[in-house]
Every structure is written in structure tokens, then in C-alpha cells.
Amino acid sequence: MKHSIIMDVDTGIDDAMAIMFAVKNPDIDVLAISCVSGNVGLDSVVDNTLKILDVVDAPDIPVAGGATRPMIEKARSAAYVHGEDGLGNLNLPTTARKALPVHSVELIRKTLTDAREPVTLVALAPLTNIALLLRTYPECAHKIERILFMGGSASVGNATAVAEFNIWHDPEAAHMVINSGVPLTMYGLDVFNTVGVDAQSVHALAESDNKVAQVLGGLLGFRVPGPDGEPDRSFSLIGDAGAVCALVANELMDSQSCPIQVQLAPGDSRGQTIVDRRVHIGEDTIHGTAGQWPTANVIFSADVPQVLDLFLSTLSVQPVTV
Ligand code: BDR
Ligand code: CA
User: Ligand 1, from 14, 193, 223, 236: best to mutate by most atoms within 8 Å of Cβ?
Assistant: First the structure.
């Protein structure tokens, strides 16, 4: 089955890998790419997105820049995780590709309007653009088949102890999207943190003669140091790319339909996704205080070797071991 998608990205090491995978996968048709401030500032996100399209010799996919900051919060970059340029300081060649001179919201609206069938939004970044779209043009919602978003967590956070970066960066936008009524699939940190390539394979990719493999190896090789100065884990995450794998290989994912909500209150839990995994009625229901929460199909885990095989074989590169 062919999936027609619009990607919303804050490119970003792992957004870059997600774009590479989506462009190369024969079951995906990337109709447009919308950029948002997140991992780095909007200008860098747009530039990185256009450069990555060159790496995979992508066709002429429309790209536009959108929100330069969240709804309420100020922009807070993740250059610590992605490098100053957002692409692991790889210094990719300049590109002749240009972004369209329109706001992302207009690009998404036009792409949805022109599409014959409903389209999946693959949102791999703070949800600012998607919230703006749904507020500005609510009639677009019926052309969205579902929003598959990388964000949130039912367990640990990364930006804070409990909040994942994309939700934490713009909690109000996440709240609007999650409560919009559009069908949702959440690819959160629970699964995101498990899908990674071993260090030996990353090294082999970086040393390869193949351009795609080299860039992939460079992206995967940029690692955040842990408290002791060593890499924070023994393997390199494919991150957002795993969410795009979930689009084409749902059978490799374990998921459950759960009520979810976003914590907006100030304090230590702001930006947390609260995922209700209970299998029994709680006292909140018994005493009439339970609110009506939207539900999402929440992916909790994946068949990691199979997902890595899908990812690497789609990019026609081979690991040493998986
Ligand atoms: C998410 O935040 C960004 O750093 C990544 O690109 C990913 O979308 C993980 O929390
Ligand atoms: Ca991202």
C-alpha cells in the first residue's frame, strides 16, 4: 500500500534520517515537507531539509518554512543533541534547492486540498505548525487520515525527567493537536529510545565510499555525551526515522489504544504526556472526576532488528552487525 504523507520536521539529525528513509521507501509518497523551529532555528531547519534532499537525490518535493517559535514559550534549541548546525556539524554541501515563499500552514493546506485521498501527517517536531493549521483552517482536518507523531512518552522524558522534547518545546500546540479529534498515532520515547545501530556499523557506514552511507554514518556518529563524558548509550538511535518505519511496517510495532493528555500546568511536569494504561476503572471514574480524554494508538515497542533491517535496506546500506 502506498502512503501519501506530508512531513513536518525540525531537521535535526534524526529528522534528516527520517526524510532520507521516506524519500527512498517505495511505499511512501512524500507530497510536501513543512519545517518548524525546534532542534535548531527555522532557517537552519529549512537549509538542512533542502540539503538532505540532495543527499538522497530526491525529486522536487515542495518545502516551506513555518513557525519560528512556539505558541507561548520561547524557542529553546536542542543544538546540544544535534550540533550547532543541527546535522552533527557535518558541513554538507550547499544546495540549489529553494523553499517555497509561503508559510508551512499554506503549503500543508494546499497539499491537503489538492490531494484526492486523505493524507497522513507525519509530525516529527514540536507541533506548532500543525496546531496553527488546525486552528486557521479547521476544515482541513477531514483531509487528514491521521497524525503520526513522534513525541511524548509513557515513561521517561528527555527534555525533562518526564517530558519529551517535541511536546515540552510547545505544550500548547501539542494540547491543541492531541485534542483536535484527528486520529492519532504516538511514537514516543518508550520505543524511540530502543531503535539503534551498533557502534561498529556506524563506523563502517561513515567509512564507506557510498554517499548515503557516509552521511548516515556521520549523522549516527554524532552522540550526546553522558555525565561521564562517554556516549550516553552503546548504540546510535535512528530516532524520528523509526516513526516513519512504523508507517510502512505497523506489523513490527506493539501498540495499544490509550487515553492521553498533555500537562500544561507550570512546574516540573509541564509538557508531560499522561498516558492512561489502566485496564480497570479508577476512583476518578467512580467518583465522577474523570475527564474525557482523547485516545491515541500508542506504540510502546518495536521488533528492533527488523526495523533496523527495513531502515538500512531501504537506504541500500548494510550494517556490520545488527
Ligand atoms: C525528538 O526531539 C528531537 O530532538 C528529535 O528530532 C526528535 O524529534 C526526540 O525527543
Ligand atoms: Ca525531530
Answer: 14
The alpha helices in 146-263, defined as continuous H runs, are 165-169, 171-178, 189-192, 199-207, 211-221, 240-248
Single-letter residue type at 138 = P
Beta strands 235-237 and 144-150 are: unpaired
Q: Position of cell 471514574?
A: 285
All cell numbers assigned to 34? 513543512
The one-character DSSP state at 225 is B
Query: At 16, phi and psi to the nearest 5?
Result: -60, -45
Pocket test for ligand 1, best of 124, 233, 238 (most atoms within 8 A of CB): 124
Residues 81-140 have pLDDT tens digits of 888 899 999 999 999 999 999 999 999 999 999 999 999 999 999 999 999 999 999 999
- Ligand 1 atom at minimal distance to the Cα of residue 15: 6
DSSP code for 6:
E
Residue with cell 545501530: 197
165 Cα: distance to centroid of ligand 1 (angstroms): 6
Q: Which three cell numbers stand for residue 318?
A: 548494510
Which ligand is the nearest neighbour of the Cα of 193? 1
Q: 20-29: per-residue pLDDT in tens?
A: 999 999 999 9
State the first-to-last Cα distance of the chain, in angstroms, to the nearest integer: 27
| d(CA 127, ligand 1 centre) in Å | 12
Establish whether residue 45 lines the binding site of ligand 1, counting it when its CB lies within 6 angstroms of any ligand atom: no
* Domain at 3-314: CATH code: 3.90.245.10
The structural domains of the chain, with segments of one domain joined by +, span 3-314
Among the bound ligands, the one closest to the CA of 239:
1
Q: Give the CA angle between residues 212, 214, 218 to the nearest 5°.
A: 115
